[in-house]
Amino acid sequence: MRKRSAELYQKALSLIPGGVNSPVRAFKSVGMEPLYIDHGKGSKIYDVDGNEYIDYVGSFGPLILGHAPAEIIETIKEYAEKGLSFGACHAQEVTFASLITKAFPSLNKVRLVNSGTEAVMSTLRLARGYTGKDIIIKFDGCYHGHADSMLVAAGSGVATLGIPGTPGIPQAHAHTTLSLPYNNIEAVKKAIAEHKNNIAAVIVEPIAGNMGVVLPQENFLQELRSITAENKILLIFDEVITGFRLCYGGAATYFGSSPDIICLGKIIGGGMPIGAFGGKKEIMDCIAPEGNIYQAGTLSGNPIAVAVGIKTLELLQNKDYRIIEQNTLYLTKEIEKRAHKKNVPIRINSIGSLFTVFYSHYPVYDYITAKESNPEHFKRTFKRLLDSGIFIPPSQFEASFLSFAHDQSDLEKTAAAYDHSFSE
Length: 424
Ligand code: HOZ
Description:
This protein is an alpha/beta fold. It is 38% helix and 14% strand. It has two domains: 3-68 and 320-423, Alpha-Beta Complex (Aspartate Aminotransferase, domain 1); 70-317, Type I PLP-dependent aspartate aminotransferase-like (Major domain) (Aspartate Aminotransferase, domain 2, 3-Layer(aba) Sandwich).
C-alpha cells in the first residue's frame, strides 16, 4: 500500500541521516516509516503510491491557503522568469516590508531571512547586542528553531524524539538560557529577581505550538509584558507559527500585546523558505549596516519567496478568518463528542485554525501536562487516521493546521475517521 514510499526510505537511509532532512517527518514516534509525497492540491496531499490524504500538517503551518493555490503558482512562474536571485535589492522587498509592518503595529522595521530558525538566531544576537546582557529566558516545551541556545528543554522534534540535554552545544550556551514552565509568571518573577541585571530578553511562543497547542492563560502575556518592561528586558514573540494564522496579523494583534521584537516565518512565505524579524526602530537600527550588530544572508529577501509572500498576504487580506475558525471549532467539537461517547479520555487545545488532541484526563497548560498525554494512544490514532486517509503531524508535540481549502466534507470524513479510531 505504501510500497514506493518504503523503497525510497530504504534508499534514503543510506544517503541522508535518518533518511530525512528534518527529524519529525521520520515518523519515529509513531513507529512507522515516512510517507513520500508526490504532490498536493487544496486540502489534500498524494503520496508516491497514489494514496490521497486530507492534510492537517500543511507543511507544519505555512499552507493556510491549502496546497498549490493557482494565484501562487502563477506568481512563482511570473517571478521565476525574471531571475532566481540577485544578491541585490529589488522593489518587492519594500512592498513586503510595508505589508508586514502595517499588519503588526508594534513593528517599525523588519529584516528578511530564510527561515524561522534564522529569524530567532538573529533576534537573540540583536537582543544581546542592544541590551548588553547575556541571558535569555525561554519556556519549557516551546521551540524556537535549532539555534544552540534555544534547544534547552525544547519542543517539536526534541520533544518528539525525547532527546536528553543538548549534545553538541557548548555548556556556556546552555548556561545563558533559562528555561521556565510555560504559563508560570511566578517562575519568571523569581528568575528576574535572581538574574536581574543580566537578562537580555524573554522569548515566548504567544500560543505554544510545539508541545502540541498550549494556550497562554489569562494575563500571562500581559504580565510578561509588564514585568519585562519594568526590568528593561526585551520581550520577543516567536510568531513563526502564529503569524497570519489567527487573523491578518499575529497573536500580538489578536491579544493586543506589544512585544519589542517579533519573529516570523512559515505563512509569510506561503510555502517558500523565508523568515523575518522586526521591531521598534531604535532596536532594529542597531543592525548592520545601520548599526554594528552583524546579520547577513546571500539569499535573504529572495525575489521569488518575497513575491509569493506578498501574494499570500494579499490573498489573506480578503479572507474571512472566522470561517476557518468555525471549521476548526466544528471539527474539534465533533472529535470531542465522539471520544466522550466511547469513553476515550481526550483534551483538545484549540484556537483559530490550530488544534491538538491530547490523550489525557487533565487540562494541558504546560510541557509537563502535555507530556501526560498517552503516547500509545496517540500512536494508534495516528496509524488509524493515516489508514483512513487523514494526515495529522506524526508527533503528539506538533499542532494540526486547518487551511481555507478544507471543506465540510473533509471535516466530516476526519471526524468519522477519529470515531473509527476511538472504537478501537
Ligand atoms: N520544526 C518543525 C515543526 N514544528 C519540524 C518539522 C519537520 O521535521 O519537518
